[in-house]
Amino acid sequence: MQIHWPLVISTACQRVGLGMFACAFLANLALGTVLPLNVVALATLTLLAVGGIASIFHLQTPARFFNAFSNFGSHLTQEALITPFLGIALLACGLNGFVYDMGPATIVVETAACILAAAFLACTGLAYQMRSRPAWNTGFVLGLFLLTAAEAGSIAVCAVCVLIGAVVPTGLAVATGVLFVACVVVQCAYLARMRHVGYGVDVRVNEEPYKTVFYLWLAVGVACTGAGLAAGLAVASSELLLAAAVASALGIVAWTVLFFKGACKVKMFPMYPVDLNLDM
Amino acid sequence: MAEAKRRYGMVIDLDKCTGCQACAVACKMENNVDLGVFWNRVYRMGPVGAYPDAVEMFYFPNQCMHCEHPSCVEVCPTKATYQTDEGVVLVDANLCFGCQYCIWACPYEARTLNPKTKTVEKCILCVHKLERGEQPACAYTCTTGCRTVGDLDDPESAISKVLEANADRVYRVHPEFGNNPSVVYLVPRKGAETLCKSIGH
Amino acid sequence: MASIIPLPDGGKIVKTNCFECHAKCGVLCEVDKDGTLVNVKGNPEDPRSEGRMCGKGLSARAILYDPDRLRYPLRRKGERGAGDWEQITWDEAIEWLAGRVEEITAEHGAESIAYGQGTGRGTNQWTGRAGNAGGRVHHSLSPGNICLVPMMVQALLQFGMFPTFDGCDFDNADCIVFWGSNSVWTEPTYTSGQIGRSRDRGAKLIVIDPFFEHPLAAKADCFLGVRPGSDTYVAYAWLNVIMNEGLYDRAFTQKHTNAPMLIIEGADVPLNEALLREGGNPQAMLVWDRKTQSMVEIHSKDIDEDIEYRGTVKTVDGQEVPVKTVWLGLKERADQWTPEAAEEKCWVKADVIRESARMYAQAPAATINVFQGLEEQTNCKDTLQLVNCIIAICGNLEKKGGNLSMPFWNQMGPLTGAEPATQRELRVVDERASGSIYGISNPTCLFEAMRTGKPYPLKGYIMVQGNPLSWAENTALVKESLMCLDLLVCMDYYMSPTCEIADLVLPSTHWTERDYLADEVCSEWVFAQQKAVEPLYERKSDVWFWRTFGHRLNPEWWPWETDEELFNWQLEQTHAGVTWDELKEAWIHRVPQMPSREYEQNGFGTPTGRAELYSVICLVSGSKPFPEASEPKESVFSAPELAAEYPLTGVTGRRYPIYYHSAYRGIPHLREIVPEPQVVFHTSLAEELGIERGEWVWIESPTGRITMKARPSDGIDPRVCVIPHGWWQACPALDLPGYPDGMSNANTITSDRVYNDEYLTPGLRSTLCRIVKKKAGE
Fold this sequence. Notes:
B: 201 residues; globular; C: 778 residues; alpha/beta; Dimethylsulfoxide Reductase, domain 2; 4 domains; 6-stranded mixed beta barrel
């Protein structure tokens, strides 16, 4: 498939932003951190706004955006329906402590925002699962959408942790490390699966035209991210962890480009070694 | 008694199609389709194989399959893409905002984004002609008579008779997707042995 | 009027016929109340096309209203080819042209002006009339020698009628053969529907063609991937199988062909009555009658002809001459060409040749369709004669499901008027080919006369619907020749490359804009091709031009004051039995059929009254009466030194179902289907040459070089390549280029060195060439 750059940007922003919020919320809840969720929420909102503007560019007639709420069965409509609620929840979290104090209601609103964030990511991930493109015809797509969000989010949370001068709890460090490794492993499994999806559209990422993006993802999304994460955690360096977070985000961009490129449409007659021909 | 609902379908006999492109041109002219936008294209598979005895070749007219379970209708967020109760899949250009999700989801490459109108377009089974009791432009003009459009649910219709007479050659593209296309092909009697073998003929 | 159906909104439907090609399918034109063409679709009442219509005809609106079409008469102002035109009126144009013709005639004689056409749009007879009216010679500078004349005339000589084009009864055939023809793309609407129906009921299909991408090749029961130009060997091998295995129709062969005709051994001339007895009729040819055990005249009834008679006769002057039948003479030749012997020469496996011959001969009714694939070869007379023999001996002539006579082809004579007395003397041919049967000038010799003034100067060329810079061999030389003319006149739809270098360019009406008759290639009918819209701008029809201009020069030859008067006269000559007004009203009219349809009573219109295997008229014209197993004059076998440099045999002339020769590449919705010229050759050759699909490559021959995109294919012999013709026009709407100066024109590389003796045909479809990868920067 051609690369839809607005969607690459928007889904990357969504995963980094919402992943970061969800991980921050869960870290505060279960891993003993005291991260400023209001600031995180505002950062998430910013990222979502950037992503939102990018995705508007994908529409040919943005003015008709409000038509998107019509088909409840469509994951895009579901995404659209969740958006305002998610926005409100995040804004409520973001302004909490600056403009007002929600007190004990905070946890409720934050939980709601986290659930909505997960739902939003799930709908968006599901939107990319379809039979017509064998590389996308798998639960891997949803799984990886969530995993990449979790990876980027957890690394970002570690960075925030160090930035505010706290120590990264062991649980958070381990969880981040595990998520990173799990994400890379699952991504590799996805790439291995692409080699035999059939329908005449098997993809070998170490060959043209995928090679360049594949190596880019390996370099940025795996090597730099992993190195930055390991080093940053070891020496508790916010710069290194921020670099790792940025590398992770850029890695998501590279991964998404590869994801689009590999999404070839089923061949009409895959039993033949040649394509259908328009040449007369 | 209420009139029985029709379920429109089309049969295309690949044994007859000679790739003359008359249908592609008829569609363009009838529906004033813009340049660069294609509602109906005729492809060629092959020639492929060892010349001269083992070469295969056939022509393949491709357009919307008007599926019984259309992937496009399922995913369209604006409901611009919808299906009539006679089974024809259409696009309301006033609702479409060009997200192209339907183009991704369609397994049959039937849809094009029109860069001028910025909406998605495809074969409409010439519903405006069907309403007048006329065949769609492609079927009307086909120089080999390989296309027949009609009511799949009516056993007396021309299309049902063609399907019955050629039951051993009936083929729906990628039936495993569950879309159940209403456009049904008849595989060639000769020149497509690989296709026929792979679908168990 | 039954042919015009008014619509409730003030518009109308006009029943007329398309003329994007010669099939002339019945069309329903929808015109709105303002006289604008809204829609076209096929007319289900047309008994041939049954409502079907191809992509070209359907594009009528786009062609009619194409802003690039010529609108006004234009006269050259500046240098030839500079593109400097002044718009003039028709009156001015006719007067000026008449003046120029009279001046040139006075100075150089009427023989210095050639009349002609390209494809023409139904005006063959009027072009001929214009040439004949000049009184000295009708050069006929047209592609007749490469299109229609060889197959039509050869059939007229052998059968007295023409059954191998629109006479094929596909609907009732049990076996259908396409031999050098692709009628499902070129005349799709009266072939494809019928063939589909026949195959549905089990009819067999045989395709004899170098190109497997022929739309029926993969579907065929037998595909013979023949070496271009080697069809003579296939045909003789078919005769070998059919004659030796006794698969021919004995009754028809004996009674209705000249198989039993007696010829003198050695000389191969007919035994005639004058040789046997004093006062005998020299025109009377003889057969051996087993009933009376004597020689009788071939027209005799109730005899038992012996097709295998061999004996000696005593002539009037006391000599003993051995005689044999035509059948034996043909069989001796056929016996040399077993399928195994033919295989080496034609590159088709012997068992395929054998199987296909049996398939054809054993079918209860079988039909063979031929066209330019067999014509555009230097051995066309032999191939066409052989195919006609095959049809005749298998009894498929004038038979339901076989090859039927069609009336139109016999009616051209009266319409063109008598040829000048000095025709044979003044026509321009040379030692390469005498044109023993087709008595016009050789286009190549005419082009030379334009350049050199030898044998006498050719100063003027007036044509309609033609683009010799596309159809004539050796384009570069043709252009050089045309530039030498004092007068070049073209009437056409578009400013073609030939129009660009003309003195006078005249704007031709589209078929939607003109009234005419549709009679040629119309099988058993004639139609009124009435206009659907009024002509736009100042366009006129080609018929109007020939009549009006003819009348101005030679009123005795062109007495008609209006086109309608001409149509009435035309209908009278063609014995249609209807007037123009009546025909316009009814739109369709069935014409009287040929007498040979009832050949049992009427025989065939030939010297022997039979379908001739041995052609008497060929003998009389100075050609050979038997067909020869002849090789194309420039081929891998006949010109091995040339072939060493240029090893590929290039076939030109492949068809596209959406274009018509060099027309319509400017129509955007057609051009987006086939945007560029592609040379097709085998995938193994592409690998060998290191050429990728889509790469622009050179195609070179001894004549010149062109460039096209490479398209490797599995569907062709590795020793053959397919080079499309007709690419010159740009399409600005799609930002697609034209191909100026013949850079992608197939005829830039075809040979003007060798010709068929009888029909003056060049070997366009077996051109020795090579494909060369471009170097960096080329």
